[in-house]
Each structure stands twice: as C-alpha cells, then as structure tokens.
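In response to reviewer comment 3 from the previous cycle, which asked for concrete evidence that the modeling workflow produces usable outputs, we include below a single protein chain processed end to end. The sequence was submitted unchanged, and the resulting structure tokens are shown without manual editing.
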Amino acid sequence: MSLATIWLDTLLLQKGLRRAAEFCGRATFVNKATKVALPVFFRQADACLMTRRSFETMAELNPQLGKQLRVLAASPEVVPSGFAFRADYHSPFREQILVEMTQLSESPAGQQILALTQADRIQERPLSCLDSALELLATHRRLCSGTNSPGTATGGLSESQSHQGGNP
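The workflow returned the following structure tokens.
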C-alpha cells in the first residue's frame, strides 16, 4: 500500500534516470525508522527513503542526525490510508461509527488503535483528497509505459514502511 517506491520511481524517471530498483543498486526494505536513517548517518548506506514524520522524530531524538542528514527530495502530501463504506451501505450504526472513528484520539484505547495503524487521527474527507495520490499513480504509469521495465518497482531501496501520514 506504500506509494514511496512509486514516488521515487516517478521522480527518477522524470529526471531521465532509471527506476529505483535499477538506479539504487543494492537496497533493503525495513520497517523501523532507526534502521533506515542510522545506516545513512553512520555512512553504511548512501541514502534512504522515509516519511517526513519519521525523519523529524529521528532528528528530535538525535539532533546530530537532523544536522548531518539532509532531505534530497520530498513528495507531495498524500493520504496514507482510508476507510470507505459501500454506496448502498445502510445501517443504523453508520453515523455512530463515523463519529466514533473521528474521536479515537480522545481515549487511551483509541490512541492504541491509531498507534497500531500509525495514524494521528481519522477524519471524514472528500474523495478529492485522493487526487494527489491518483495523479502520482497516473504519472508513474505513463512514465513506466515509456520504459523497457515491466510493472512497478518492487524493491531496490532502503525505505521506511512505517508511513504515518504526510509524505512518503
């Protein structure tokens, strides 16, 4: 469900370079921010791809990291996940479900659910909030159809999979 590799592919292809899986050489996927940023900090890796929030948290915990590492590129904001009801879903609980979902951050149990899903909050948004992600996917598809590489890049970079909202 991550758009990070798709975003990186798109960025590289727009600059006339190869897709991430081919351009980055040896790479690994990990799901802990420390295992993403620290190898770059200690010069064991050349670069990493992680969420802005993860980078900012790492920089808060280790100010040296924030001073020594720099952001090379940032993606547009995208909605990291979503919930949807079928158009024909009619339940006496629908409104209650929506209200309760928006109030998750107000209780310890709700905060645990948000922490598990790595979200700050759940809020009702118009479908147009997906426009930036859909545009990124369309651009990626268009650029990839002009390359000899089949399908989507599925590997090839060090990346934090802990997407917590905001930018990949």
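Residues 103 and 110 are 8 Å apart (CA to CA). We consider this sufficient to address the reviewer's concern, and the full set will be provided in the supplementary archive.
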